[in-house]
Amino acid sequence: MKVYLVGGAVRDELLGRPILERDYVVVGATIRDMLKLGYQQVGKDFPVFLHPESKDEHALARTERKQGQGYTGFICDFAPTITLEDDLIRRDLTVNAIAQDDQGNLIDPYHGQTDLKNKILRHVSDAFSEDPLRILRVARFAARYHYLGFTIADETMQLMTAMVQAGELNTLTKERVWMEIEKSLKDGAIHIFSNVIADLDALPFVTPWQTKWDQHNANTLADQIKRLDPHNDTYLRSAFSLWQYQADLSEYNLEQDHKIPKAYADSLRDLQANLPLLQSDDWQADTLMTILNQLDAWRRPERLSVFISTVRVIDDTCAARAIELNKAYKAASNVKAQEVIALGAKGPEIKVEMDKLKLKRIACLFSEQ
């Protein structure tokens, strides 16, 4: 029985990037062997175990044979006779098919180190085409490592194009598509992800409402996302909204049909509904009040926070008006029901009079400018 560190941990160590998790492959062992050593079995489709102390994932070396369409139609063989090379050849990219033994020696039968040095993302074998999810993974890796100068090998682009043309992306669940999108949003280079998807003519399968994507879109989005605060709780929702706000969503139910979380979809719709007002030539107290009401900022200030965090990076005018909008909210939110009740307002009149007083305080801000 031999244990090897594999995949992303080896790749990122060679690239000098932080290692977020460590995955291991075990050669020459059976399920019974692993259980005797105290490992906890957690894998359903194939044997994956948690180390009794570190809890790192350990998978038995395996081969896969395609049966049917999609990314789930595989028959796995995890016999103890499966070699490390057998296991590594089933992996997606050469840079992910490097193993390291317990002495630190690298096992690299498919020349992943050469591709790392040359900054190339290349598929290991034609078995790549058996799993359409790998198209999105490659787009995500291209985005993640773009800052290092990585590009996708021509032959890998050709293979992925053929997979798209064959309709393989139709076999992916919307949940899995969203998972890859969200991971790319977290990496901060969703514009590169979109470049790859567009070059593959795969937009209709991934973001069908996004009918147009070119380098101008990519450059604009990259500049905007660069100015977001990645440590802000609103970061991912802002990045998603900036990525998609110019799309026509009228015929799409993002949550139900595309499994996009409601928080993301709501933030996008808020931006689409209120950005025209923020950019309007008619910028006065009534306009600010309308935006605040449409965002339900009085009861849900988080919506306003996401909106302000998003629009402030669109351009200088939006940034300036976002500051004014935030000042208007602070001034108006100090209005309390007791103030208008003390003036004689009752029942439904209370809200009406509160709105009048809020608008008056916002207008005062304009008169002070």
From TrEMBL:
Q: Which GO terms describe its molecular function?
A: ATP binding; CCA tRNA nucleotidyltransferase activity; metal ion binding; RNA binding
**Cofactor(s) listed:** Mg(2+)
The source's superkingdom equals: Bacteria
Q: Does the keyword tRNA processing apply?
A: yes
Q: Which InterPro entries match?
A: CCA_bact (IPR012006), NT_sf (IPR043519), PolA_pol_head_dom (IPR002646), PolyA_RNA-bd (IPR032828), tRNA_CCA-adding_enzyme (IPR050124)
**Which UniProt keywords are present, listed alphabetically?**
ATP-binding, Magnesium, Metal-binding, Nucleotide-binding, Nucleotidyltransferase, RNA repair, RNA-binding, Transferase, tRNA processing
Q: Name one GO biological process term.
A: tRNA 3'-terminal CCA addition
Which residue numbers delimit the Poly A polymerase head domain?
A: 3-122
Domain tRNA nucleotidyltransferase/poly(A) polymerase RNA and SrmB- binding: residue ranges:
149-208
Q: Which family does it belong to?
A: Belongs to the tRNA nucleotidyltransferase/poly(A) polymerase family.
The name this protein carries in UniProt is tRNA nucleotidyltransferase
